[in-house]
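Lab notebook, design round three. We kept the backbone fixed and only want residue identities now. Task for the bench partner: fill in a sequence for the structure below.
Input structure tokens:
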């Protein structure tokens, strides 16, 4: 029994054509009745479930138990998620006060767009996981964060910003770790350091520039991240980007202008320090050499 199911272009083309036909039939059946009754909806749901079970049973017989179990596991999960979508759709239709005569057309358009976006996200997600495996842990953290059901507050803002920014810190610190020769830690161990002492006295001091750089980068990103702060913050306290956006509608206060001026001045001072401080400590190169493309003498 093989672990994967192999099929030629003809089989895949036939499956895609059949699924497209079934989607068209489903949308036509839904739009043909402006007032769908519970009995009619139950009959159509039974038809689709029967077709899915028949396909899974055929796959089980042809490709083996592993393929059949994978199909039914995915089908049950998607079915459970679709039930949640029913409540979301009902809330959206009620919130936007969609007229009864337009609900079928709006629902048809929404389902079509959802299918296209889901296809794009599936292929993009698979590609991203293949190229950068740690994304899997970030997605898992997002699922845990949303599943806990925390109320919007300062805690949710902090957790959201950490989840968003940890990838940048990982890339910078990991690059610095990769540049540290393994012989440095081995030399520290040969000189009598314990593993903890080698980490504290050798590895961590070497990582200080990367930690500072990642901290400054995350600070700049979080300071300007209005979208994430807006959707995860509660009534109080409000992050600075949300407060600035709120004040724009009623007039920017002098305090906001002072904060903007202060941040501009601090940014300029940090840039000058990053360019010229290495020279003060008699280092042969600095960030200015990286910008100008060579070492000055």
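Proposed sequence:
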């Amino acid at each position: 029994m093989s672990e994967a199911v192999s099929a030629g272009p003809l089989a895949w083309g036939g499956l895609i054509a059949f699924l497209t036909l079934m989607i068209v039939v489903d949308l036509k059946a839904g739009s043909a009745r402006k007032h769908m009754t519970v009995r009619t909806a139950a009959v159509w749901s039974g038809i689709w479930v029967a077709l899915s079970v028949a396909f899974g049973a055929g796959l089980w017989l042809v490709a083996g138990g592993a393929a059949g179990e994978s199909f039914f596991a995915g089908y049950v999960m998607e079915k459970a998620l679709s039930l949640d979508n029913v409540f979301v759709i009902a809330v959206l239709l009620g919130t936007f006060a969609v007229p009864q005569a337009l609900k079928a057309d709006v629902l048809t358009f929404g389902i079509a767009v959802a299918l296209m976006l889901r296809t794009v996200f599936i292929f993009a997600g698979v590609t991203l996981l293949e190229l950068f495996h740690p994304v899997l842990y970030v997605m898992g953290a997002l699922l845990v964060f949303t599943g806990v059901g925390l109320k919007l507050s300062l805690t949710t803002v902090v957790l959201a910003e950490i989840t968003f920014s940890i990838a940048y810190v990982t890339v910078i610190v990991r690059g610095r770790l990769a540049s540290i020769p393994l012989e440095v830690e081995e030399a520290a161990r040969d000189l009598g350091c314990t593993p903890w002492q080698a980490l504290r006295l050798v590895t961590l001091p070497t990582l200080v520039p990367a930690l500072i750089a990642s901290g400054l980068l995350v600070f700049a990103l979080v300071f300007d991240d209005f979208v994430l702060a807006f959707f995860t913050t509660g009534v109080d306290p409000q992050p600075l980007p949300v407060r600035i956006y709120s004040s724009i509608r009623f007039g920017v206060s002098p305090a906001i202008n002072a904060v903007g001026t202060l941040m501009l001045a601090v940014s300029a001072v940090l840039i000058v320090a990053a360019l010229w401080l290495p020279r003060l400590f008699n280092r042969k190169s600095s960030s200015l050499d990286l910008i100008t493309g060579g070492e000055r003498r």
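Keep this in mind before ordering anything: The first helix runs from residue 9 to 32.
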